[in-house]
Amino acid sequence: MTAGTDGRRTRRRWSFLDDLQRATPTVRLLVLTQLTFNVGFFMVLPYLSVHLTSDLGLGAALVGVVLGIRTFSQQGLFFVGGTLADRFGIKPVVLVGCGLRVLGFLGLAVFDSLAGVLVATVLVGFAAALFSPAVESAVAIEAGKSERLGGPGRVETFALLSVCNQIGSFTGPLVGSLLLLVDFRVACLVAAVIFVVIIAAHLKWLPNEPGEHHDEPWHAGWTDVVHNKLFVLFAIAMSAQLVAYNQLYLLLPLEIERAWGSQKVLGWFFALSAVFVVTSQLPITRKVRNRSPLLVLPIGFAVMAVAFLVRSYGSSRRRLHDRPEETTEIDSEM
User: Fold this and answer.
1) How far apart are CA 157 and CA 209, in angstroms?
2) Closest CA relative to residue 191, chosen from 33, 301, 40
C-alpha cells in the first residue's frame, strides 16, 4: 500500500516531466521553445505600460492605444500566420516571426519617440501572429501522429503546451523585474538575445516540411473554417476572452504603480497566476478530458467573469476609501 501510494504521489508530483518525456522529439522542441517564447515576452510586456508612462511620459489613454494596437497586431492577425504556415510550411513562418520579434525588442530598446515605439510594438505583436499559429499547428499535427501511435493525444499535448506557456509566464516577469533594476532597455536586449537562441534551435531541429495546404487555393482552408459554425462560435467566444484578459497588461501595472509606488512587485503577481496554472492544468485536464467542451468551456468563461467582477468590486471600494482622505486633505489645506 505504501509503495503504491508513494508511486501515485511520485506520479502526480512529476507528471509534467513524465508527459514531457513521453512526447515526441518535435513536440518537446515546440513546447520548450514556447516556454522560452514566454520568458522573453513576459520579461518586457508587463512593464511596457509603466515604461511608456514613466520613462516616455505618455498619457494613460495613449498607452492604451499603443497596447491595443499591439494586441490587434498579434491576436487579431493570427489568421495571417496560420494561412502562411498552411501555404509555405511551419518552419519558415516560425523563423520569420522570431526574426521580427528580435527587431521589435531592439526597437523598444532604442526608440524614444512615439512613432518608433509604435512600430516596434507592432513588430513584437505581428511576430507572434506569425509563429504562434504555426507552432500550435505543428503541435496539433504531431499530437495527431502521436495519438495514432498510442502516445499522448491532442488534449494531453495541448495541456503540456499550456503548462510550458505558464512556466514562461512565471519566469519572465521575475527575470524582467531583476533586469529593471538596471534599465527597461536591458530587459528588451536580453529578450532579443533569447529569440536569437530560439531561431538557432529551430534552424537546427525543427523539421522543414511543406505546408498542409501548399497545393490548394488560398481560400480553401477558410471556406472550411467559415462553414464550421461551432468553431466560429468558439472563435468569437475566445475573442471576447482575449479582449478581457489583455486589459490586465494595461490596468494591472498601472494599478500596482499607483498602490505601491513601484512596479517591482508586478512580476510576483504574474508569477502567482502562472504557478496556479502550472500546478493545476494537467490534473484538471485529466479530470475533464472526457467531458463535453460545451460544458467545460462555459464553466471556464464563467469563472473568468467572476474574477473580473471581484477585481472591479475591489478597485471600486479602494477608490471610495481613498476619496474621503483626499477630500479631507484638501479641506485642511484650504
Assistant:
1) 21
2) 40
The grid coordinates of residue 153 equal 493525444
Cα dihedral 172, 139, 286, 242 sign: positive
pLDDT digits (tens, 9 = 90+) for 99-124: 999 999 999 999 999 999 999 999 99
DSSP 211: -
The 10 Å CB-count burial string (b at 16+, else e) for 214-235 is: eeeeeeebeeeeeeeeeeeeee
DSSP secondary structure code for residue 113 in this structure: S
* Burial grade of 4 (CB within 10 A; 0-12, 13-18, 19 or more): exposed
With contact defined as beta carbons under 8 Å apart, do 160 and 23 qualify?
Answer: yes
281 CB burial (10 A radius; 0-12, 13-18, 19+):
buried
pTM: predicted TM-score of the whole model, two decimal places: 0.73
pLDDT digits (tens, 9 = 90+) for 294-323: 788 888 888 888 877 876 666 566 555 655
Which residues, 6 or more positions from 265, have their beta carbon under 8 angstroms from its beta carbon?
Answer: 256
